[in-house]
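Researcher: I need the complex structure. Ligand is adenosine-5'-triphosphate. Inputs:
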Amino acid sequence: MSEMKLSRVLVLSGGLSHERDVSIRSGRRVAEALRSQGVEVSEVDSDSSLLPTLSALEPGSVIFPTLHGAAGEDGAIRDIFEMLELPYVGSTADACRRSFDKPVAKGIVESVGIRVPASRVLPHSTFRELGAQYLLPLIEKSVGLPLMVKPAKGGSALGASVVRSAAELPEAMISAFSYGSDVVIEPFIAGREIAVSVIEESDGTLTALPIVEIVADSGFYSYDARYTAGLTEFFVPANLDSILSARAADVAKKVHMGLGLRDLSRSDLIIDNNGEVWFLEVNVAPGMTETSLLPQSVAATGRDIGALYKELAERALLRKYSTSQ
Ligand SMILES: Nc1ncnc2c1ncn2[C@@H]1O[C@H](COP(=O)(O)OP(=O)(O)OP(=O)(O)O)[C@@H](O)[C@H]1O
Ligand SMILES: [Mg+2]
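Model: Output:
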């Protein structure tokens, strides 16, 4: 059965998350790259016509999800693929669930020996019950300034803010709560922000791709800094000495393994002024637009990104038609 040939890749993007637009751009790029390799591609949105479309897929079809944010990255859509027994590129539903939830992922990553900023996680209901006038000063005192506030489950830095003075804290909390019911509060780690993408090769080994250093004008890689031309500079490969590069690559691979991820991932890290590497979060469906970090890293290797996506799709098919998935 392992002779099954790749007949079509269904690139799934859009959906109803806050990152719908970015996802559509990611999907378009992945589709173009696959077509350049002679692969038949259909681009589909995640809406009420999706289940009938998936149910009618011919054998040899593989799904390539490029859905960002909730549903796309929290495991839900991959549970659907698994229920339909359809092959797909990327991590399993279970692995997505533990990765998308930032506090859960940090706990697991810390247990494999990686530094993570200590976080407090507060649901909106705690503010209502205990009163913001008492909680806010406690947060400021116990976490210290500057601090970072972000939704426990989110992406593209939506609802994330750096708080440098106590006066900025209430607005930061309101902004984070507008993207989810739980908010993470953690110390702001000063240093160099990097992204390390990891690709699983066909023999099962992990490759850490060239590191991207992100230098945002504001010192924080916000939503605007991501999607407004000229606000951020990227350096690929990052100008790091070999010891720091190796350390960061090792952290990203440990994150990938520790969370049980599959095929590809992108870890967002900070190297502090003492050369220590801190884990911020991991992306199971990293951005794939022309300016996204993983495609920049692939380009720096000289590897054809379409060929890489095709390889991942073929491997997903092989998983399905070999003994275990
Ligand atoms: N503890 C921290 N210290 C310093 N900067 C931070 C910290 N946490 C987050 N940031 C900044 O906020 C940005 C967004 O945070 P993070 O990557 O955790 O969330 P995200 O919204 O899920 O991002 P993505 O779109 O990459 O999935 C980071 O790129 C970084 O610039
Ligand atoms: Mg991030």
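Model: Summary of the prediction. DSSP finds twelve helices and 13 strands in the chain.
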